[in-house]
Design a protein that fits this description.
By secondary structure, the chain is α+β, with helices and mostly antiparallel strands. The chain has one domain: Beta Barrel (Porin). It is about 20% helix and about 50% strand. The chain has four helices and 14 strands.
């Protein structure tokens, strides 16, 4: 199964890389889906405008400024198929969205997300996944920005896990952005407090990003996560190289190492992971990804496990 998927995708990649794009093509499924997507977006934006007017009825904004902020709202839906080492094929659904309202955008933000219990799968589906949350439930959040500008964001958030077992958690976090001439640094720190099961989680990260040229960009991430209930601290060290071939074809090469500290071990190796992500952009709002992956985990005695994931993503927004 893995070989078949790989061969088909390699042929697909070569065809799209070297084919003559001027040749007229028949109307595709995505072309037929586009009007429905626009209808969904318009309905979504009209709903947000009504909510915004109800919250701040006395504040007026001109239509140009209002629509500019409304159009930045996006909802990303990703369906994924993952082929495991045990020859099983499992489907996954991933949702991520931020709601910023025009009259309250300086302070308030609503969030919705759904990921999986697997960190390695989450990083394959969405690079912005929340590593401190380890479940497959839908989470809704209300975020309040105490300070927000181009260089610093200090915020609090009240989140709720909708599916059973339901839970509510509070979060406080800060992000610092440093832009230099040849590279960028991001500092991120956050604390989670679950109200029902009394979990306490703290996480911090440092991201180093350096563009190499018009086709390549290097990223180095270090993430430290402490969990009170499990009495563990995890350190993730990640290397990434982004390779953009053209507007439709791109690659991401990734190596990661995870170490864990607990009562029995001081930062002993827990997981090694390597993958290549190939993305083909079907439209500005739709894409396909193929991710072959190798993992060695302590729980499986560091036996090499092979995985392959196929993702199809759709972005609902007018800001592309």
């Amino acid at each position: 199964m893995k070989k078949i998927i790989l061969i088909l995708f390699i042929l697909f990649f070569l065809d799209n890389l070297f084919c003559d794009t001027k040749v007229p093509k028949e109307k595709s499924f995505l072309d037929s889906f586009a009007p429905m997507r626009e209808s969904i977006i318009d309905g979504y934006y009209n709903f947000l405008k009504k909510v915004d007017n109800a919250l701040c009825a006395n504040e007026d904004l001109n239509n140009t400024k209002l629509e500019k902020i409304i159009y930045k709202n996006r909802l990303q839906v990703i369906t994924a198929l993952k082929h495991n080492s045990d020859e099983t094929l499992r489907p996954y659904l991933y949702i991520r969205g931020n709601i910023i309202l025009p009259k309250t955008n300086k302070r308030f933000e609503f969030t919705i997300d759904k990921q999986t219990e697997s960190k390695s799968l989450n990083q394959n589906i969405d690079t912005q996944y929340d590593g401190a949350i380890k479940d497959e439930k839908i989470h809704l959040g209300f975020k309040y920005n105490l300070v927000k500008n181009d260089y610093f964001n200090f915020y609090t958030k009240l989140g709720a896990r909708i599916n059973k077992p339901t839970d509510v958690y509070g979060k406080i976090g800060a992000i610092k952005y440093l832009n230099f001439k040849s590279f960028m640094l991001f500092f991120d720190a956050k604390i989670y407090k679950y109200l029902l099961n009394e979990k306490l989680i703290a996480s911090s990260s440092l991201n180093f990003i350096k563009p190499l040229n018009e086709h390549f960009m290097f990223e180095n991430d270090m993430i430290l996560t402490w969990r009170k209930v499990e009495k563990t601290t995890e350190l993730d060290y990640i290397l990434k190289l982004y390779h953009t071939i053209n507007s439709k074809n791109s690659f991401e090469y990734r190596l990661s190492y995870t170490a864990q500290e607990n009562n029995l071990c001081y930062y002993c190796p827990k997981e090694y992971e390597a993958h290549i992500r190939y993305r083909y952009t079907l439209k500005k709002w739709a894409y396909l990804e193929l991710i072959p992956q190798l993992i060695k985990r302590k729980e499986n005695h560091f036996v090499t496990e092979e995985f392959i994931s196929l993702n199809f993503g759709v972005i609902f927004t007018k800001w592309l």
